[in-house]
Write a structure and sequence with these properties.
It is a single chain. The radius of gyration is 19 Å and the shape is globular. It is α+β, with helices and mostly antiparallel strands and about 200 residues long. The two termini are about 30 Å apart.
């Protein structure tokens, strides 16, 4: 078996952590990425106007799932955090399929993919599911459960200035606010950490 390098090991640590624009998972990930690099952290509070948008509330989640009429657990947040729509409000309710399907998202053209969806400002809830699994769902009573919470918090930005001989400035920028997506959501931050270490 091929031995993993440090970047691959870091990826494996970060990939399962649930992240959104604000919250425990984001702070945990940022702490891991900036370890031993002496980053400066800027905090911008909830409701602060930033150009054409406003900093939302902080959102955290501990569990979410749907229980089918056959008592099978699907869209389990603990198995894949993409199953839950980011910023979903808490809910614990029994409902029929007609009501449930209004809050389920999928991509027909990508039947094996779980879509990433979020709702920072509109208070609602939802689940993402593979289209091939959605097609198997039948009429009946479903239990919908989301254990999430909202509070006023701060958007955290990490920055590091590395001085050189030139007065010119080169900016490297990346972001960390989406869960379980390797392409740019983790590749960008991991590569940026490596650039900081090498410079």
């Amino acid at each position: 078996m091929k031995k993993k390098n440090n970047l691959e090991k870091l990826f494996d640590i970060l990939f399962p952590i649930n992240r959104s624009i604000m919250g425990n998972g984001f702070r945990k990930s940022l702490k891991i990425l900036t370890k031993d690099l002496n980053f400066n952290f800027i905090k911008i509070k909830t409701n602060t106007k930033v150009f054409d948008w406003e900093i939302p509330e902080e959102w955290n989640i501990s569990n979410a799932f749907i229980l089918t009429p056959q008592k099978k657990k699907i869209c389990d947040f603990k198995k894949n955090n993409l199953h839950i729509m980011g910023y979903s409000v808490p809910i614990n309710k029994i409902m029929n399929f007609e009501e449930l399907k209004k809050n389920i998202y999928y991509i027909k053209k990508l039947p094996e993919a779980i879509p990433y969806i979020t709702s920072y400002y509109k208070k609602r809830w939802g689940f993402g599911i593979k289209y091939k699994d959605y097609k198997k769902l039948k009429n009946g009573k479903y239990k919908v459960y989301i254990n999430s919470s909202f509070k006023k918090g701060s958007l955290v930005i990490g920055e590091k200035l590395i001085k050189g001989k030139s007065k010119k400035e080169i900016l490297f920028s990346t972001y960390l606010c989406h869960p379980s997506m390797a392409n740019n959501e983790l590749s960008g931050p991991i590569v940026l950490r490596e650039i900081c270490k090498r410079i």
